[in-house]
Write a structure and sequence with these properties.
The structure is a homodimer.
Chain A (H helix, E strand, L loop, with lengths): L1 H5 L2 H9 L4 H10 L4 E3 L4 E3 L7 E7 L2 E6 L5 E7 L18 E4 L3 E7 H10 L1 H27 L2 H18 L3 E2 L2 E3 L4 H8 L3 H13 L3 E4 L2 E4 L2 H8 L31 H5 L2
Chain A binds a DNA duplex through α8.
Amino acid sequence: VAATRLNNLFVARLRALTSLGEVELTALDTLCSDRRHYRARSELVVDGSHPERVHVLLEGCACRYKLLSDGRRQITALLIPGDLCDIDALHVWRGDFAVATLTPATVAPISRPQLRRLAAEHARIADALGWLGAVENAMLAERNACLGRRSAREHVAHLICELFVRLAVIGRVEGDSYSLPITQEEIADVLGLTSVHVNRVLQSLRSERLIEQQGGTLKVCDWQALRKAAGFRPDYLHLEGLDGAGVDGLGAAMPPFVRPAFVADRHV
Amino acid sequence: VAATRLNNLFVARLRALTSLGEVELTALDTLCSDRRHYRARSELVVDGSHPERVHVLLEGCACRYKLLSDGRRQITALLIPGDLCDIDALHVWRGDFAVATLTPATVAPISRPQLRRLAAEHARIADALGWLGAVENAMLAERNACLGRRSAREHVAHLICELFVRLAVIGRVEGDSYSLPITQEEIADVLGLTSVHVNRVLQSLRSERLIEQQGGTLKVCDWQALRKAAGFRPDYLHLEGLDGAGVDGLGAAMPPFVRPAFVADRHV
DNA sequence: CGGATAGTTGACTACCCTCAAGGTATGTGG
DNA sequence: CCACATACCTTGAGGGTAGTCAACTATCCG
């Protein structure tokens, strides 16, 4: 059991950030026992379908997105390991977005009725799921502010900062670098820009030595400058956890180069 | 008790759209017994504060918003009677947005621990609150798509459509008109535009006879054209309710001019 | 009748988009 | 090993949507 949980970042995150006890965590972990592998760019959830399963992303990157009738796409969430792909599906009769992988990915599909039953039986699980939903909400609201009121440059920098923190939390930042295996086109669909413009902004950030890129790796060279260029404040990620349950692992003022992920630490 | 509930659109909405029974509805209604009146533009929730109360908007208009350090403002939600102003506050330790009234308003502040207790004791209340959160989520995601991928014209039209439907649900549409008591500046902060541009777009919609405006009243003259100009589809509002519990009161294809609000009907 | 708030208009600007072409990296098959 | 295809990144030129700045008007209200 412990061995399983070690590679279940979803449970690890809940363990670190909510008040769930071992019983609940084990129950959730058990629900994740069915693991499936997908290749890059496969559709996990079709838009408009009635959800029968909820998807936990255990490995790889994915996204939630919406398509307009003429093909314009907006990615409403970038998903990283440990994320719930479609938490709304728990409460909603018919989905209004799609989910697709961006890279090869490992996913645990959870039976919706089973998870609902678990939430009905354990108030603390319902609470933890509510917390996950609230964080989703906060992230969407922050992106709203980016899309509506920040410049392309600010927005690109903001995304880089956000990914840095989120990946640090799950132990996927090494030194000052992380792997960013998605295309500029996909970044553009997150930011509401064109890939051409994303390219130009990234070039400008590189030429000013705020970041470096090689292969699929992004290195943050000057965190303070990047943070300032973005107007980034990590409050909305609610790293303090449900009701302050989690450690304040990363501090209010994100340290320049992050210590090893506290989530990964915590279940050794 | 019934008399009270008649003017509690929050409870009325839950009654129509979720599977809550009389016991739970009454418990919630009782929590709303403390009602406070605010004038226009008063701050209900300060950004960054630890939430001790959750706010139910019973009358008037309000908004959730975020301020960037240089004063730019993004309104992340327009709130109408029956809305929960700060549902995230139930799960989150420190808020990351502010709430303010836009018009004179009646608000019921609910003790956060009391509501949390109620949710812990009644799984169906937790479920209903989860549903409210999921709808918030869907609305934020849809606005993301608007901000990122729709033109100003589409976005303005979209907002007009959305308000039409949401107000129809609570019985605040008369014929083809509703009251829109907010300034173009505030609309601009919802849409991520400037008030000058909002003004021009509204003029264009008026000159093409899609809408009319006089005083604080907005009249939809040509619903189909407006809907098409917006690319509006009401799916994301989840009018079918929690797990399809509610009536499909407005139909998938929004009728041109809406029948009397089904919520208001239902508790006569 | 001021004074404040909100709506309107015009001239100019700029950020980002569009279109199109060229460059680079990787993988495949002959 | 090379030819070729594909996917992605890069670069340039030109244009349009929406922003900025500023003045003017309308309306309401004390």
